[in-house]
């Protein structure tokens, strides 16, 4: 059975982070293993405000040693709480020769507006993104990595993708989401030479919690199964479209996407 590692945070509400990653791996027939580096809580008495609780780096390292001793076919990262953990993730890729690494450069929690730790942005950009097989920023994260103005058009996505590719990743996938001026939900893949568009129905819903985590985990699952990057992204695009279609409200604040069991073919 194919195996994948996720280094990410725990979403106490169960919709994103490690929880979304492991559900996605399971749905796509991949054995998932997880290294927690932070725990995210939500305060129901303060409008679901997020609290971020980092785990000691030595504990993260011990988890990784456990997992990597078994061997992995792919890995992905999500929320990384400190510069030290970002460095650790980069070291894993280098030391173990990971050739299928999906970097989801998480910078904010869903429902929050500020970059969690500004110093992490530089560490992601300079240390981890260059090691990625695929880096999967949303529009906000892409503008941060590309040091550009907010992205609202397809041409601006292409410019940002070029800038991010110069950092060193093999592929850049920018997710258009609801912020792009386009009638479809458009994502843009760039390999340094060619752009490939992935389009799907744009759904009018607020229930998208965990969408980014699920999308990047689905790409990692495809890579673990030996798919090419383009094939893995196409698989993941179909998977996340259905996950959003089947999303549901957890409470008045959030609605998670639903990872449905599916074929990897």
Automatic annotation (TrEMBL):
InterPro entries: HMP/HMP-P_kinase_dom, PM/HMP-P_kinase-1, Ribokinase-like. GO terms for molecular function: kinase activity. It comes from the Bacteria. It is an enzyme of class 2 (transferase). The keyword Lyase does not apply. Residues 11-257 form the Pyridoxamine kinase/Phosphomethylpyrimidine kinase domain. Its EC number is 2.7.1.35. It holds the Pfam family Phos_pyr_kin. Keywords: ATP-binding, Kinase, Magnesium, Metal-binding, Nucleotide-binding, Transferase. SUPFAM superfamilies: Ribokinase-like. The keyword Metal-binding applies. It catalyses: pyridoxal + ATP = pyridoxal 5'-phosphate + ADP + H(+). Belongs to the ThiD family. This is pyridoxal kinase. It comes from Kroppenstedtia guangzhouensis.
């Amino acid at each position: 059975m194919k195996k994948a590692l996720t280094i990410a945070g725990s979403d106490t509400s169960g919709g994103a982070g490690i929880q979304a990653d492991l559900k996605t791996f399971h749905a796509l027939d991949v054995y998932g293993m997880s290294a927690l580096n932070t725990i995210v809580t939500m305060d129901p008495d303060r409008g679901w405000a997020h609290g971020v609780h980092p785990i000691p780096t030595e504990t993260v390292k011990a988890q990784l040693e456990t997992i990597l001793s078994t061997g992995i076919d792919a890995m992905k990262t999500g929320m990384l709480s400190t510069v030290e953990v970002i460095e650790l993730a980069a070291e894993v890729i280098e030391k173990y020769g990971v050739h299928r690494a999906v970097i989801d450069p998480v910078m904010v929690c869903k429902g929050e507006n500020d970059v969690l730790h500004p110093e992490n942005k530089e560490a992601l950009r300079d240390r981890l993104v260059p090691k990625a097989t695929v880096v999967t920023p949303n529009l906000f994260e892409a503008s941060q990595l590309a040091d550009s103005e907010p992205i609202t058009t397809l041409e601006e996505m292409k410019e940002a993708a070029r800038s991010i590719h110069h950092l060193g990743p093999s592929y850049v996938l920018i997710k258009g989401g609801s912020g792009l001026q386009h009638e479809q939900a458009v994502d843009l893949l760039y390999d340094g030479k060619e752009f490939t568009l992935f389009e799907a129905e744009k759904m009018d819903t607020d229930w998208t919690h965990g969408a980014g985590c699920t999308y990047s985990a689905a790409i990692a699952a495809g890579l673990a199964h030996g798919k090419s990057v383009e094939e893995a992204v196409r698989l993941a695009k179909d998977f996340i479209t259905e996950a959003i279609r089947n999303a549901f409200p957890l409470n008045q604040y959030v609605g998670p996407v639903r990872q449905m069991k599916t074929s990897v073919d």
